[in-house]
């Protein structure tokens, strides 16, 4: 069997790096970056918020001119990840009241590339970056695999399924459930498009993967739907009621606006936005019990999605992207308010 193609890499270490503490972790990180299909430009490792080392592809161009630390490769390559780490600490705090566990994976991307950030275990954080939009999915897969290897092979901890389970079958409801759909102040009451929006939400939501979706224009709710009343989802609401969770996701959508500028600052070090496009195309906040997704359909419009089932995180992401494309086809006919 032919060995997988490898790319040349280099390791940039901080002065406190030691082979005893960091050696095996560094080897696994280097394997991930060296794999030709990983799409990873560089990968940074942090312990308790302190940078330990960076693994980079040897053949790489300079990052965006927005990076301030010119001439210092270690700081240049790690700066986007360091900023993302600070963002995830705050985002984890606003997600915690939902009762779905710790934030363990964040993906933020636009048409120019993306950032991946996630915790291996409390106090240990990884960040990866790519300046190619076509490589974001491959980077995401490679980083998820790396985290699982570090947990299971180095720390002897269980797999938390970052990104979901590849073996999970995409959803269809095991009972006949009609999603609840409500309209917000940005909707156009009685319009044809209102019925189309209702139909789209009802056609994409199910009790297996994508269980909640909300469409916003200029940070104002247009419509929202969920299947939280389904009996098979009852155990998901032992600690947080259906009503409280609905309110919490609406509040979360508004609170994200305050964090978006910091996320975009980190992303734009790697992938400056295209003129006329949204600063971010996609945001994934993967917690221990599911994920929250935000997908922009235009600079002023976005869709929020939720799954409460960790194995279905990947399938729910795919379904939300399908919904976002369909919403974009409808809403482009209407001028933004």
Helix content: 25-40%
Average pLDDT reading: 90
Low-confidence stretches: 65-69
Q: Total number of β-strand segments? A: 12
Structural class by sheet pairing and helices? alpha+beta
- Measured by DSSP, the beta-strand proportion falls in 15-25%
H/E order of the elements? EHEEHEEEHEHEEHEEEH
Q: What Rg is obtained from the alpha carbons, in whole angstroms? A: 20 Å
Distance between the termini: 58 Å
Determine the number of helices (DSSP H or I, runs of at least 4 residues).
6
Can you summarize the main beta sheet?
A: 12 strands, antiparallel
Shape: globular
Biggest sheet: strand arrangement: 1-3-2-6-5-4-10-11-12-8-9-7
What attributes characterize this protein structure?
337 residues, alpha+beta, 12-stranded antiparallel beta sheet, 6 helices, globular
Report on this structure.
The protein has helices at residues 19-34, 73-95, 136-154, 192-204, 242-268, 313-331; strands at 9-13, 42-47, 50-57, 103-110, 113-121, 124-130, 180-183, 212-217, 220-226, 282-287, 290-298, 301-307. β5 and β6 (124-130) form a beta hairpin. It starts with 8 loop residues before the first strand and ends in a 6-residue tail after the last helix. It has 6 helices and 12 strands. α1 packs antiparallel against α3 (136-154), α2 runs antiparallel to α5 and α4 (192-204) packs antiparallel against α6. By secondary structure, the chain is α+β, with helices and mostly antiparallel strands. Strands 1-3-2-6-5-4-10-11-12-8-9-7 form a 12-stranded antiparallel sheet, sandwiched between helices. Mean pLDDT is 90; it is low at 65-69.
